User: Fold these one by one.
Assistant:
Number 1:
Amino acid sequence: MKSINEKDIHSFVDAVSGFFAQFAEEKVEIRAAYLVEGAIKPSTFELTSYITLSGDYSGRVYFSAPRALIAHLLLMMQEPNRNDDRLLDAVGEIANTISGNARKHFGETMEISVPSTEVTETGWLDTVVSPRSYVILVKWKQYRASVVVDIQRA
Amino acid sequence: MNESQSIFSKYRKIILAVIIFVVCDLMVIGINFYGTFKAQEAAVSINLSGRQRMLSQRMTKVLLLIRRSVDTNDEPSVLRNLKELDLTVNLFNTTLRGFRDGAMVTGGDGNPVFLVQVETPKSHQLVADAYKIWDPYFNLLQPLLGNNRHFSAEQLESVVTYAQNNNLEVLRLMNDLTTDLEFVANGRADFLRMVLLAGFIIALINFSYTVFISIRQLMATDRELAQARGETIEILSTVHEGLFLLDKEKRLGSQFSESLPRLLHREIEPGMNFLPILKDMISAETYESAVDYIELLLGDRVKEALVTSLNPLTNVSVSLSDSIGNTQNRYLSFFFNRVLIDDKISHVLVTVQDVTDKIELMQQAEQAKNQAKTEVDTLLRLAGNDFGSLQQFVFNVGQSLGQINEKLSEPIDDPRSRQHTLNYIMRLVHGIKGEAAVLGIDAIEGYAHSCEQEMVAMREGNTELSGEHMVRIAVLLEGFYSRYSSLNNIVSNLSAAMGGQEKIAAAAQADRPAEVALPFVEHITHLAQRIASDRGKQVEVNCQVAKFAILPANITKELESISIQLVRNALTHGIESPEERATLNKPQTGALCLFCEYLGNNLYDFTVRDDGRGIVPDRLRDQLVKSGRMTVQEAATMDNLEVTRMIFQPGFSTASDSADINAGHGVGLDAVLEKVKGMNGRLSVKSRPDLFTEFHIQFSVPQ
């Protein structure tokens, strides 16, 4: 069975990186990449967005970041309004970019939901279901964020 | 038939316009022809009508001349004038009759001509009035006609008198008739002009309409063509397969899919000959078959369906070179279909697909199937002989993978820290590889080896270690977990079948039974013999490790792991080939000893000794320089002890073949040292060139 590969993972991380490069003139850097296994859980921050995929692969791809990161991003985008709704919109935009890249990478046969956003608690993401999902910890400026690839071949 | 209907339907308006044009032209020509004919008739009538005027005057004149000649007895003149009278009367009479009834008359040029009956009521009336005068006139003339000289003077006088009395009236009537005929002729000429003008206008309108329809049709056709071309281009730019047409000279058509150059890894130009392209990619034998096959398809001697199965270019391995000369092996499938026009073969449509993924998946599936079989055989063997070791191995692998994952989850921002992480992971992977080798679990050993190779490439690559490298390691780890899960499931099922989970736990836990040392001896001996056999060497293993049985399990585990590495090193680097040993006056079979001794005061010594070529400092210096770790000068300034210590540095290896699963990747002694440190032990090495190498590990075990 063909499982998710490195290119698939990079398609999601590159989308995030591309978003920051476009709107904040600075790419994100990968700090760590690991698997959700045993006691090792995926990190989450205060704002989380995700898309749901179905088709050849199914599952979710999450992007989670602290409020400060998204506020800083909005500041750089010269967005005066930085209330919670706008922050969630911005984090949803990042998921939307991930969705666009996923569509390009996996092809039109992949069904991808519209992005969902949530205010979460910093800690562990407990909705991951796939065995050994990938967690990519990234850094933008001094902030940390995470991309969780919780998909498996259908 | 359908094609004709289709063409008529498509060009219906143009065809109708042309038909109308032709019909109008024919009508105008017909009317013109008729008008011309009528004009000719009118000209004759007008001409003869005019002649009637002249004849009426000539008759009067001739009668008067006859009377004068009679009076003067000029007989010749009488006769001559009688003759002229006869001609004139006859001509006048037949012409007048022609005007009334239509008849053949003598024309102006003396030739017979048909004089048509007058048409208008006025002309009819004039002719009728003329007859009212002419009929008595003609009767009075009868005695003088036929050149008859025997008329009486009274007869002559009466006709002369009648002529004189009616001459002007006849002249007027003939004059009026001429005028009326001219009027009719003019009217007809006007009509004809109108018809011609109308015909010209209709023709002009029709022409304009035809041009309009034609241009509109052409524009519609152009639009359809542009749309069709657009759709073709869209298809050719979207489709993943390579699509192109081959003509009978095996040249590519003018259009081909955008993916074709990518699939064939080369620039493609319309009109290129396909055969040289093909020749560059495939073996000579396949090429010959392919040429024959294409020839068959382009010929019309065989049916396409009959030869499809002969296509030698399905799932064919191709060698593709890119613009910078890198060669890549892929699998392509070429499908050929005849293109028929009017039942004649015009081209062959070629479809190219990259089936590399499919073929590799099939190969992987086959490989996995074979591997699984080997694996199951191994596991069954182990289950029969040493199930405890197998369970311990699974337990250890799980733990090592967990440690790797934990390490990977630590955020790192600098390449140096990533280097440390990589070294740490490589040591754990190396340990797994060693343990798998001892038990003969090839799938885990092979995968660990390929991971090791990849990580060595990362460590020794030109680029600094980045986050992307960490993603790659995570993917490698997932592959490890995948294999581990399968193995774990099998072992769990086997253990359940063999008597329950308690037995596994008992075997895998720290306080293992004393007899575990015996399987270790068996495994380590087996490993040594296998490596020796792989490398064309001979070895005799003397393993005195009974003390392992009384040591704590964690210590034993580490010693076993160290043993695996040192045995592997001894066979790879130490013990020579039988031929080499013979030249050194050594026994052809090398000696490999493992001893574990109690030294007293809770202190133990574990020794691994081989009688191979020993550690040669100069050889180590060469290797350090070759690997780029130091310059010749730096290596030369180091003393032998310092150089020997370098063998414990991460990344140091004297092996030349990195593809050799038993060769070092610069991980082994680094890992050994780490383990000894973990035991709070002390590692020392003694060696003499061409005689022996001896590793001593001293450690204490608290009571």
Number 2:
Amino acid sequence: MAEISSDVIRGYNDTIILFLLKEGPSYGYELSKRIRQISEDKYIIKETTLYSAFTRMEKNGYIESFVDEGDSGKKRTYYRITDQGNAYYESKCSEWDLTKEVIEKFIRR
Amino acid sequence: METIKNYLTNMFMSLPNTPEVVRAKDELLSMMEDKYQELRDEGKSDNEAVGIVISEFGNLEELAESLGIADQMTEEKRDTRPVLPMEKAKEYIEIQGQKGNLVSFGVFLCITSVLSPIIFGISDLDLIVNFGIAGMFIMIAVAVILFIIAGSKGDFKEIEKKTVVLDVETTEYVRNEKARYSSSHVIMLAIGVGLCICSILPPILFSIGNLEDLGAGLMFVFVGVGVLLIVASSYKQGAYDNLLKLNSSKTMAERIMTEEEKKANTIIGNIESVYWQTVLALFLIIGFLTFDWSSAAGIWIWGVIGKIALGICGKLLGREED
């Protein structure tokens, strides 16, 4: 089975994370677990990739962090999407449509 | 779980100690803990869970840009010193211990060498008196040989020049060994200092009649044994301290140090590490210059007072740094 190269998916980690945060605030491990589940084990995001995406998007104002204890009682850093983040997500979706359309033209089996 | 923590600590050790880096480490640890816990709940063994968590961790280079340390990852600011292998650290401790034994015995011989002329001086025969003087020089010569052997033992330039660092496991090991040794160190130091102070007693007690020589002789035996204990224990203690001092206080390696070890990294720590040796040297210099040993012994009382003052200064400075 072909594996996803991290170079290819890099540009879309933000999209993936923002998609999940649109469903509600979440924290590191929960997000990585959801990504794995939704991708049916085809994409396992590395902890360092996830964390660098958090800090980058927080700096750009796409997400906000806050500390919460959640259900488990363990203090975790949660992230929630901002209006800016929603707008960015929309633009990334349009970008993907275009990308997919273009690349498809060069794929023949 | 401990394995994961150590893995992360080792990964971060060379990075600068900034709020961003600390936060990143905490966050990553939290994610890894969650993942580990879930894997264990799924029935995976400790080894399997640790293996999966570490293999899916990623790499630090990816974090560099988001931590504002991209430049440090390539520049010399990053602590790129290699890790000292545990074996080498153990060897260093052992050799320093041996050196301590050799040097302390050498110093003991030097101090007690004056006994030889005293003992043989009792005789009226010139030949025997000369034997005494010869004996003194033989003892000093043996001491010098011991010093040379001690100096040639082991090659630990990397530790002396601080071109290596300790990883978590070795730090832990050295710290435990030091803690185990600390009670013997304190006892040896206390007895050593005690003997040096008490050395003024024999000359006072035997000042009557023609027992003066006995008094003087006993005094040198007291000082000799006292100094032997101080030097031997200081060498071993110094080995632990030197190893723990390798970890720079500017990087995340500082986070695996205790308060005491951080203090050892400061100037006061440096003074303290040679403190008793300095007092001892002053005591011997004054003693041999004036031959008024009971006055010279007063330096030990000043030494104790100074040590307490230094301790208070260290506490105050430590508080300011926080």
